[in-house]
Each structure stands twice: as structure tokens, then as C-alpha cells.
Design goal:
By secondary structure, the chain is mainly α. It is 51% helix and 10% strand. It is extended, with a radius of gyration of 29 Å. The two termini are 40 Å apart.
Length: 185
């Protein structure tokens, strides 16, 4: 056996086929274990109170040491991504189904559904005057950002000269909240 083959072996085409079949079988077993809508827990009446009750259960579990804050934050991220994905894949179908029962409004298990146009956008780029005003906005926004950058350096009231204009400066109030940023890998 050559030195570079010391840790590897040649695999016959039959062995490759067996491995591939095993991988495919494993994949389909995993697919079969994925929940379908019929296997998911039945959605109960959704109310602000039912949500508050469920939140209280999580809070109790945290306070009694049955789970950790990190586990709950990870679970929340999972639920956010899951909800976003379900909404994306089900929205069109849900709208079609909604239209069978109502034109404007429908309440199902405590959730009021309303059909609305969302994300409406207009393209004004064909109007030259719009471009002119947009450019002026940009100039003012840039000037404001430059001023904000300078004002951020002040820790107490003072005076600042901008374009030969003397202005009184009051330091900005900085606020923030410490939080965990959750990113899926």
C-alpha cells in the first residue's frame, strides 16, 4: 500500500452503490419523520389570553430552572424562521382558500383574517421633477448625517461652527438595549 493511501481505501462501484442506496433510504426515513399538517398539534383558539398563558408557561419553566434563557432565545429564533417560512409557502394558497368563504373578512379560531393589498409600491422615476426633489433630499440627508456625526462627539453642551455658522450643541441622548442577535448558521 502506498503511503498516501494509508488512510484511504479504494471503494468498488458496488460498494458506492450500496452507500448511495443507504443514504437515499436514510433521507426518505427523515422525510417520513417530518410532520405534516395532519400530524401537527391542533391549533386551538388563538387569543391574546391563550398566548399570554403559553408565555407564562415558558416564563415559569425559565424561572424554575427547567430551561435556560439561551434555549428559549434559540427556540424563539426557530419559531420566527418557521413562521416566516410557513407564511411564505402558504400565503397564496390561503388567499385562494379565503376567497371561497369571504370577500373581505373572516374569523377562524379566534384569528381575524382580512384580505388587503400589502406592499404596494409606486415607481415615480419617470417624472423629472421627482428626481430633482429626490436629489435635494439626498443633499439635506447627507448634511444632517455629517452634523450628527460631529454632534456625537459632544459629551456636554458646546458650540460648533458649520459652514461659518455658529450653532449651540446639546449632546445627543444615547439609548440602547442589550440583546442577543440570533443568526442561523
Amino acid at each position: 500500500m502506498r503511503n498516501e493511501d494509508k488512510y484511504s481505501q479504494e471503494i468498488s462501484s458496488e460498494e458506492v452503490e450500496i452507500i448511495m442506496r443507504a443514504e437515499e433510504e436514510k433521507h426518505w426515513q427523515e422525510v417520513e419523520q417530518c410532520p405534516t399538517v395532519h400530524q401537527l398539534p391542533e391549533v386551538k383558539e388563538v387569543t391574546k389570553q391563550s398566548i399570554a398563558d403559553d408565555l407564562a408557561k415558558f416564563e415559569t419553566a425559565l424561572n424554575e430552572g427547567q430551561t435556560s434563557g439561551i434555549d428559549l432565545v434559540i427556540f424563539a429564533k426557530y419559531l420566527e424562521e418557521l413562521a416566516k417560512g410557513i407564511s411564505q409557502i402558504a400565503n397564496e394558497s390561503a388567499v385562494d382558500e379565503f376567497e371561497k368563504y369571504s370577500e373581505k373578512e373572516l374569523t377562524v379560531r379566534g384569528v381575524k383574517l382580512e384580505k388587503r393589498e400589502t406592499g404596494v409600491r409606486y415607481d415615480f422615476s419617470g417624472t423629472p421633477k421627482w428626481h430633482e426633489i429626490r436629489e435635494q433630499e439626498s443633499v439635506f440627508a447627507d448634511a444632517r448625517k455629517a452634523l450628527e456625526k460631529q454632534i456625537k462627539t459632544f459629551t456636554k453642551p458646546g458650540i460648533l461652527t458649520v459652514d461659518d455658522e455658529v450653532i449651540d450643541v446639546v449632546p445627543p441622548v444615547r439609548t440602547s438595549k442589550t440583546s442577543l442577535v440570533r443568526t442561523l448558521k
